[in-house]
Amino acid sequence: MLIDKSYFLELASTSPDSICKRLPCTYNTAEGNYSISLWGDEYCIDPKKMTIYCTATPDKPSHEYFPLFIIYYLLKTQPFTANNEWISENDIPGGSTFFRGPHLVPTNDMSERFGNDIDAFSDKCKKLGGTPLEMADASFSIEIAPQLHVAVLYWVGDEDFPAEAKILYDKTISDLFPLDIVFALAVEVCTRIGSPHI
């Protein structure tokens, strides 16, 4: 798990009441852990054991970056209201420099999986809770948490250009997360939609 233990130590020293007032999560006093629903799954975060796992499938972890997103969300996210304006990762301050090389958002996971099969892409997004949008050849809004949505866009290819996928974010993401946490979320989106096993 790619989480510095300082995150867990900070969580252990933070008042559970203060966290549960900010976010729709619960704290189990007897067990000393948190439970929160993200993208339709319930996750358990145990600061003392330094573990994060999906309660429904504890032996089937998400991408290794997603727990980093989860603990940051739990620790730092303040109440907010979606702006309802979509932006790309390059529109986030500093994003055009950050999201390249090792931090290039792996949307090719989706385009290589589906190719020109737009129906298969649409079916997968609906299965993962997506709501259709009117952009690209197909697009869906996916709720990660209350007020926190991403848009996944897809274009079929032709003889000149291959199929292409893209992720957009509500403009509020600039105020909510640093760039590495946005990247952690984006990788999970690409993995869940692009994986044939999820």
In brief:
With 198 residues, the chain is α+β, with helices and mostly antiparallel strands. The protein is 34% helix and 24% strand. The protein has two domains: 5-76, no CATH class; 86-194, TATA-Binding Protein, CATH 3.30.310.
Strand and helix layout:
Blueprint: H1 5-13, H2 16-22, E1 25-28, E2 33-38, E3 41-46, E4 51-54, H3 66-76, E5 86-87, H4 95-98, H5 108-114, H6 118-127, E6 131-132, E7 138-145, E8 148-155, E9 164-170, H7 173-176, H8 179-194
Antiparallel strand pairs: 1-2, 2-3, 3-4, 5-9, 6-7, 7-8, 8-9
Q: Please tally the helical runs, counting DSSP H or I stretches of 4 or more residues.
A: 8
Low-pLDDT stretches: none
The level-1 CATH class of the largest domain? Alpha Beta
Distance between the termini: 20 Å
Proportion of residues in helical segments: 25-40%
Q: Please indicate the count of domains.
A: 2
The proportion of residues in beta strands is 15-25%
Estimate the global geometry from the Cα principal axes.
globular
- Protein structure class: alpha+beta
User: Could you tell me the radius of gyration in angstroms?
Assistant: 17 Å
Biggest sheet: strand arrangement: 5-9-8-7-6
Main pleated sheet: 5 strands, antiparallel
The run of helices and strands is HHEEEEHEHHHEEEEHH
Number of strands: 9
Would you tell me which CATH topology of the largest domain applies? TATA-Binding Protein
- pLDDT averaged over residues: 92
Quaternary structure classification? single chain
Looking at the overall shape, the CATH architecture of the largest domain is: 2-Layer Sandwich
